[in-house]
Structure formats: structure tokens, C-alpha cells
């Protein structure tokens, strides 16, 4: 009998920024389908998901991936969290997205998420920055090359490799505007797939960084002052947006989004006001505007979309620490209703 190590991964109850948790279950394998996996319990009182006098919570597997770190037939398992009685736990935002995505399945919603993050030393200083003082001002770091311009490429390359081995649909990586800041892109995929894969990619990044003794920050403004923040720009389209004449559908969607700005900001990540200042390629958190090729807008309509008359929009408001289940829910709920 082939024994399989299944790493059950879930999102905890910390607020406003949830964390990833995981533990290993040994199973008889191989496992070919998520439906073959059993539910599993955990101590919710240690993850802010239950009280100590009634602490059991339930993990229900929803998607599986190859485990690129352990290799073999071992797997990574994304789970939803339920209460002991089988009802959806209040921290489980995936369940609500699951219901909404089924309702609007005919819209064929696609998402691509650009996850920015920052490497930190264990003392909280950005990885590779001078012991005293600061590196040169921003300018040459974005998509840079060379040891004086990029810090942490070895970790980034290892993360990319393990994500691809896991079967994740990463579409690219690049160094970002602030030194020690990077980005990877997931998608385009449907709402549940892109969200599951973004969380798994986050887990893999933290797991790889353990081996390097480096901390991964997805705070929206890891360094105060004249440094870019970290976002999770979310690209969105429906079937009608991707078809001829779709630009008018996109413009109508932007008008809908303008009326729900505060509702979206409420679920677009914590401390986002530190990043959305109107500076460093952002629109102020207090304002909403959209435009073609405008990286200072809330919603950017890409040049290619404008030229082709169809395509997708980019929501530049979500912060790096956003929950993709909530962001995807908000976009579908506002645009498709």
C-alpha cells in the first residue's frame, strides 16, 4: 500500500488579515480525486475559530494539488472550514463564492490576480537592504536585473518552480518597484480555481521562504515613506466582455463599480488606506475613477482592450493581503447582478 502525506491547508479566523494553517494526514494512496479524501477536525480555539469549551472545527477538502516539496504521490489539500455541526464557519468565505459562481456560471467569469509581496529579514527589515540607511531611491528596481537592483531572486525562482510542479496556473513573475518586492500572477481562471490557487501559491511561498530564513510580507505598505506599497491587482472579464463590442460592457461594469466603491474597499484588504493614497501608482481610497492605461485609476482599462474593443478590466484597489474569495465575490456580485 502506498502511503500518502496529505497536507491539509486552511484559512484561520484572525481578523482583519487571515493566516494560513496546515497539518499533515497520512493516508493510504494514491489519491486521484478530492472526493476520496476524508474530512478532518482541528482545534479551532487555537486559530480564533472556536471557543476552548467547544473547540472542534471541521476541514472539508475542496481541491488537491501535487506536493512539489515532498514529491512522490504526496498532495496539498485546500480545505473549507465548517462548524462541528456541519454549518459553514463564519471565516469560510469560499462557501459564499461557491454559491455565487454557480448562480452566474453562464457569465464565464475569468480572473487573473497579480500578487505582490515583500521579503523581510527576521528583524523586519526588507531583505537585502543596507544594515544602516536605505538603498537608492526607486527607479531601477522594477523588472531589474543585477545584484544591485534585485534582492531574493533565488527564492523567487524556487517558488516559481514549485508552483509549476504543483500544477498551479502561474502566468508570470517579475521584480517590483520597491527593492525586495516581487510579484507573481495566477490565472486566468474561474473564481474558485484562481482563489484556491492563490492561497496555495501563498502557502508555498511561505514554505519555501522557511528554508531561506526569510519572512514573506503581504502588508499593503511594508515600508512607510516614499516607497511603493503592495497590491493584488485583479483582472476580471465576463464572456460578453471578451467578445466583439465588449468595451461597452466593460464601461458599464465600471459605472456599476463606481456606485459600490465603499463596499468593495471594505473587503479589499486591511490597512489599505496606507497604500491607496493617490501616490505611487494608486488612486486615493476616497475616490473612484477609471481610464484607459491609467495606473493612477481605481480601474484600469488596458491599452490592448481599448484597441481591440473587448477584453478585460483591471481592478487596482485590492491590497496584497486581500482574501481572493471575497474580492472575486464582490466583483461578480456587483458586475453580474
Short description:
This protein is α+β, with helices and mostly antiparallel strands.
Main β-sheet, in a few words? Answer: 8 strands, mixed
Q: What is the CATH class of the largest domain?
A: Alpha Beta
N- and C-termini, Cα separation: 50 Å
The CATH level-2 architecture of the largest domain is identified as: 2-Layer Sandwich
Number of helices: 8
How many individual β-strands?
13
Secondary structure class reads alpha+beta
Strand content: 25-35%
CATH topological fold name of the largest domain: Creatine Kinase, Chain A, domain 2
In the CATH hierarchy, what is the superfamily of the largest domain? Glutamine synthetase/guanido kinase, catalytic domain
Strand and helix order: EEEEEHEHEEHEEHHHEEHEH
| Approximate shape | globular
Describe the structure.
This protein is of the alpha+beta class and 337 residues long. The protein has two domains: 2-91, Roll (Ubiquitin-like (UB roll)), CATH 3.10.20.70; 102-336, 2-Layer Sandwich (Creatine Kinase, Chain A, domain 2), CATH 3.30.590.10. Helix content is 26%, strand content 26%. It has helices spanning 93-103, 153-166, 191-212, 239-242, 246-258, 261-265, 303-308, 324-336, and strands at 2-11, 20-29, 40-43, 56-66, 75-83, 110-120, 170-175, 181-189, 215-217, 232-237, 290-292, 299-301, 313-315. Strands 6, 7, 8, 9, 10, 11, 12 and 13 form an eight-stranded mixed beta sheet that branches. Strands 2-1-5-4-3 form a five-stranded mixed beta sheet.
Amino acid at each position: 500500500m502506498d502511503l500518502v502525506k496529505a497536507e491539509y491547508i486552511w484559512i484561520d479566523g484572525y481578523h482583519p488579515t487571515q493566516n494560513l494553517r496546515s497539518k499533515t494526514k497520512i493516508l493510504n494512496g494514491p489519491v486521484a480525486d478530492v472526493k476520496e479524501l476524508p474530512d478532518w477536525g482541528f482545534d479551532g480555539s487555537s486559530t480564533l475559530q472556536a471557543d476552548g469549551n467547544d473547540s472542534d472545527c471541521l476541514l472539508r477538502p475542496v481541491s488537491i494539488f501535487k506536493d512539489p516539496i515532498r514529491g512522490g504521490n504526496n498532495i496539498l489539500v485546500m480545505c473549507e472550514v465548517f462548524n462541528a455541526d456541519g454549518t459553514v464557519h463564519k471565516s469560510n468565505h469560499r462557501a459564499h463564492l461557491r454559491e455565487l459562481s454557480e448562480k452566474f456560471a453562464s457569465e464565464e467569469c475569468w480572473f487573473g490576480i497579480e500578487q505582490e509581496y515583500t521579503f523581510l529579514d527576521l528583524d523586519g527589515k526588507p531583505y537585502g537592504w543596507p544594515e544602516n540607511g536605505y538603498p537608492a531611491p526607486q527607479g531601477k528596481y522594477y523588472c531589474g536585473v543585477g545584484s544591485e537592483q534585485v534582492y531574493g531572486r533565488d527564492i523567487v525562482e524556487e517558488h516559481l518552480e514549485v508552483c509549476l510542479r504543483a500544477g498551479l496556473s502561474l502566468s508570470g513573475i517579475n521584480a517590483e518597484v520597491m527593492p525586495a518586492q516581487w510579484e507573481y500572477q495566477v490565472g486566468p481562471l474561474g473564481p474558485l480555481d484562481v482563489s484556491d490557487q492563490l492561497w496555495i501559491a501563498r502557502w508555498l511561498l511561505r514554505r519555501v521562504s522557511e528554508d531561506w530564513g526569510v519572512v514573506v510580507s503581504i502588508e499593503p505598505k511594508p515600508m512607510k515613506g516614499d516607497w511603493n506599497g503592495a497590491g493584488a491587482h485583479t483582472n476580471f472579464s465576463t464572456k460578453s466582455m471578451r467578445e466583439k463590442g465588449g468595451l461597452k460592457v466593460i464601461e458599464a461594469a465600471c459605472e456599476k463599480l463606481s456606485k459600490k466603491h465603499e463596499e468593495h474597499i471594505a473587503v479589499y484588504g486591511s490597512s489599505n488606506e496606507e497604500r491607496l493614497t493617490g501616490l505611487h501608482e494608486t488612486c486615493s481610497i476616497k475616490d473612484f475613477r477609471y481610464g484607459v492605461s491609467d495606473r493612477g485609476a481605481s480601474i484600469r482599462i488596458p491599452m490592448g482592450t481599448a484597441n481591440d474593443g473587448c477584453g478585460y478590466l483591471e481592478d487596482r484597489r485590492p491590497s496584497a493581503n486581500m482574501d481572493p474569495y471575497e474580492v472575486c465575490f464582490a466583483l461578480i456580485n456587483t458586475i453580474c447582478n
